[in-house]
């Protein structure tokens, strides 16, 4: 069994971005800037946002953090995004999801300028992704998984892949990226009839449903590749969507939680911010 070490790969990507940032600072006198908006005090979101801010400072990126109270109204959030759209120091705008219920996620994403959509959540970017355009901004989690699979030279052509999860952020774009690489993709969800019949024939299973230890040893075939997107905080600790101890006995490759997909998601956010910076500055 080979552990797909996202922590190590993310570190290498970040090191490269850090060196590039230093060069840009010397040649252009400016660096990529990322604005991060968090509304409310969801503890998990706070942890993610703080790690993104810390990452910016490690890389030499500028960060512009906006922590807004839970009761902030939609208009205020849209107004802030409007200001950030105009701010030349800001190359990427990230609004941490989920948003409080009184704020319309669609309106918020619509407001973000296309060339600052470092999450790749806008319809234009998702459409380009579906069409196989490699220059568009891709959502960070699926993009990070593709990088990780590439780093371990995992062939996708002709593979039967089951994606469990159908969110706009992970499941749907993940399916498209895999299809573009020649995989045969089945997209399931937690309500899929006889999920085990599907996962147990798959060459690769990607779990993204947010239920701790949902995928068990009896649900996978010998030699399968297992990718775990889940980050579930329970009373007993932090677990992925995969029952790691059991499944790793049968898997050929598996991502750990933590240290698998999570760090790759954050690394791709910085890579997208660099991409946005270069585009606006006509570099390469
Ligand atoms: N919430 C969970 N994952 C993500 C992500 O990739 N981007 C944003 N903005 N919010 C998230």
Automatic annotation (TrEMBL):
A Pfam family that the UniProt record links to this protein: THF_DHG_CYH_C
Residue span(s) of domain Tetrahydrofolate dehydrogenase/cyclohydrolase catalytic: 4-119
Pathway field: One-carbon metabolism; tetrahydrofolate interconversion
Amino-acid positions noted as binding NADP(+) in the UniProt annotation, renumbered to this chain: 165-167, 231
Similarity remark: Belongs to the tetrahydrofolate dehydrogenase/cyclohydrolase family.
NCBIfam families, sorted: PRK10792.1, PRK14186.1
The protein, known as: Bifunctional protein FolD
Organism annotation: Fusobacterium mortiferum
Gene from which this protein is expressed: folD
